[in-house]
C-alpha cells in the first residue's frame, strides 16, 4: 500500500476529538491506502512514499450530505419562478416530479443521478444519502433505489413521500406491504414525510415499524411546513435524526435534547421556498446536535452544494463557521449512524477536501465561489 503525506496544510480541521484539537495550523496528514494514518503538526510528520505540498491551503473532512432526493427526472423551474413571484410552496408539486420520473428510462435516471453526484463531488461531498420517493409504485420505488444503490450505500426508501392518488389507507398498505418487499433489498433506511398534506403521526409510526421489522433504520421528514407531531415522534422512537425541524416549539427542542436525536437542518429549502430559516442557534444552545444537508431535490431545494448550505447556516441561522462545518461533516455522519467518516483522525476513511483558502472560515465567508480545489475519497483524489 502506498502512503501519501499531505503537507503544507495552512489549517487542518480534524474534528477528531479527545487528544487532537479541532483546528491544527501548519499541519500534515498521512494517508495509507484508503485510511488516515496520522494527523498532526507538519514539524512532527512521519516519512511517506509520496508527498503532496498543498501550499498553505486548508484541509477539512469531506462533506457528508445526509439527506438528498437525487433519483428524479425533469425539473420544476417554472414552479420556482412562480414562487419567486409570490406563489407559496406546496408539497403537491411532488406529483409533477413523480409523473416525470415514472416516464423516464432507467438509463435516463441513472445518468441524471451520476451528474448530480458529480456536482456534489466537485463541491466537496464525499458521502451522500439518496432517497427514493418520486416513483410511488412498487416498480418505480424499487428501481429508484436500485439506481441509488449504484452510487451510495446510504439509500433510503421514501415510498411514504405523498399519497400519489386514491385512498390513503390503501396506499399505506401498499407501502408497508409489496412496495416495502421490493424496496428493502436496496435500502438501508426508511423515511416518511410526516406533515399536513402528506402522512400523519399514526401513519408514520406504521410505516417506520414495518420498515424496522425488515431491518431498515427509521428516519423522518418533520416540522417543515408548520408545527406538527413529527419531531416528538422521532424523539420518542429514538431515531438517529429528524430532518427539516423548521417549526419547533420549546417542547420539541426539549424532546430532541433529551433523546439525543440529531436535528438535520436543510437551509436550501428555506432559501428556495422563502420560508423562515430554522433557528440553529436555539437548538445548539439547548444542547441539541445539529446536522446540515442539502435536501437536493427539484421542488424545495435544487442545490447540490454543501458550501452554499454552510454559508446560509452561518449568515441566516446563527451558526459559527466551525459549527456549520461540523454539522456538514461529523454530525452528518452521525445522522447516518457512521463513525468511520466525517472526521480526520487515524483509522478514519481518508475522505477529505482541500479548500483553496487560508482558513475554514472562507467556506462561509466566500459564498458562491468555487473554493473546493480537491476532493479525496477513501484516499484517492
Ligand atoms: O424534503 N419534504 C418533502 N420532500 C422534499 C420536497 C420534495 C419536492 O418538493 O419535490 C423535501 O423538501
Ligand atoms: Fe427531503
TrEMBL record:
UniProt binding sites for Fe(3+): 67, 69, 221, 295
The Amidohydrolase-related domain, residue ranges: 58-364
Keyword Cytoplasm: yes
One term under GO cellular component: cytoplasm
Record's subcellular location: Cytoplasm
Keywords: Cytoplasm, Histidine metabolism, Hydrolase, Iron, Metal-binding, Zinc
InterPro entries, per the entry: Amidohydro-rel, HutI, Metal-dep_hydrolase_composite, Metal_Hydrolase
EC number: 3.5.2.7
GO biological process, one term: L-histidine catabolic process to glutamate and formamide
Annotated binding of 4-imidazolone-5-propanoate, by residue: 76, 134, 161, 224, 300
Binding site for N-formimidoyl-L-glutamate: 134, 297, 299
Gene3D superfamilies in the cross-refs: Metal-dependent hydrolases, Urease, subunit C, domain 1
Gene Ontology molecular function terms on file: imidazolonepropionase activity; iron ion binding; zinc ion binding
Record pathway: Amino-acid degradation; L-histidine degradation into L-glutamate; N-formimidoyl-L-glutamate from L-histidine: step 3/3
Catalytic reaction equation(s): 4-imidazolone-5-propanoate + H2O = N-formimidoyl-L-glutamate
Residues binding Zn(2+): 67, 69, 221, 295
Any single Pfam family the record assigns to this protein: Amidohydro_1
Obligatory cofactor(s): Zn(2+); Fe(3+)
Cofactor remark from the record: Binds 1 zinc or iron ion per subunit.
Biological role stated in the UniProt entry: Catalyzes the hydrolytic cleavage of the carbon-nitrogen bond in imidazolone-5-propanoate to yield N-formimidoyl-L-glutamate. It is the third step in the universal histidine degradation pathway.
Family recorded in the similarity comment: Belongs to the metallo-dependent hydrolases superfamily. HutI family.
Name of this chain's protein: Imidazolonepropionase
Amino acid at each position: 500500500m502506498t502512503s501519501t503525506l499531505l503537507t503544507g496544510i495552512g489549517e487542518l480541521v480534524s474534528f477528531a476529538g479527545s487528544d487532537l484539537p479541532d483546528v491544527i495550523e501548519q499541519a500534515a496528514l498521512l494517508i495509507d491506502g484508503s485510511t488516515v494514518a496520522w494527523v498532526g503538526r507538519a514539524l512532527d510528520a512521519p516519512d511517506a512514499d509520496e508527498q503532496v505540498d498543498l501550499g498553505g491551503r486548508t484541509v477539512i473532512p469531506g462533506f457528508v450530505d445526509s439527506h438528498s432526493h437525487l433519483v428524479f427526472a425533469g425539473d420544476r423551474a417554472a414552479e420556482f419562478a412562480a414562487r419567486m413571484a409570490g406563489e407559496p410552496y406546496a408539497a403537491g408539486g411532488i406529483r409533477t416530479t413523480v409523473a416525470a420520473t415514472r416516464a423516464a428510462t432507467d438509463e435516463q435516471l441513472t445518468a441524471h443521478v451520476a451528474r448530480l453526484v458529480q456536482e456534489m463531488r466537485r463541491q466537496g461531498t464525499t458521502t451522500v444519502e439518496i432517497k427514493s420517493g418520486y416513483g410511488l409504485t412498487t416498480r418505480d420505488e424499487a428501481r429508484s433505489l436500485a439506481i441509488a444503490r449504484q452510487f451510495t450505500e446510504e439509500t433510503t426508501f421514501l415510498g411514504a413521500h405523498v399519497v400519489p392518488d386514491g385512498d390513503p389507507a390503501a396506499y399505506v398498505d401498499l407501502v408497508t406491504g409489496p412496495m416495502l418487499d421490493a424496496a428493502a433489498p436496496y435500502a438501508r433506511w426508511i423515511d416518511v414525510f410526516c406533515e399536513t398534506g402528506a402522512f400523519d403521526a399514526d401513519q408514520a409510526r406504521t410505516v417506520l415499524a414495518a420498515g424496522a421489522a425488515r431491518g431498515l433504520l427509521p428516519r423522518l421528514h418533520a416540522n417543515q411546513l408548520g408545527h406538527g407531531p413529527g419531531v416528538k415522534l422521532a424523539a420518542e422512537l429514538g431515531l438517529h435524526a429528524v430532518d427539516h425541524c423548521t417549526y419547533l416549539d420549546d417542547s420539541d427542542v426539549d424532546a430532541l435534547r433529551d433523546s439525543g436525536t440529531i436535528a438535520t437542518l436543510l437551509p436550501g429549502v428555506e432559501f428556495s421556498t422563502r420560508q423562515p430559516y430554522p433557528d440553529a442557534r436555539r437548538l445548539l444552545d439547548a444542547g441539541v446536535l445539529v446536522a446540515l444537508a442539502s435536501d437536493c431535490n427539484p421542488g424545495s431545494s435544487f442545490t447540490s452544494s454543501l458550501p452554499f448550505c454552510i454559508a446560509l447556516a452561518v449568515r441566516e441561522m446563527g451558526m459559527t463557521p466551525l459549527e456549520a462545518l461540523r454539522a456538514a461533516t461529523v454530525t452528518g455522519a452521525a445522522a447516518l449512524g457512521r463513525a468511520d467518516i466525517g472526521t480526520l483522525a487515524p483509522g478514519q476513511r481518508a475522505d477529505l477536501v482541500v479548500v483553496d483558502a487560508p482558513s475554514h472560515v472562507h467556506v462561509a465567508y466566500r459564498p458562491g465561489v468555487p473554493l473546493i480545489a480537491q476532493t479525496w475519497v477513501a484516499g484517492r483524489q
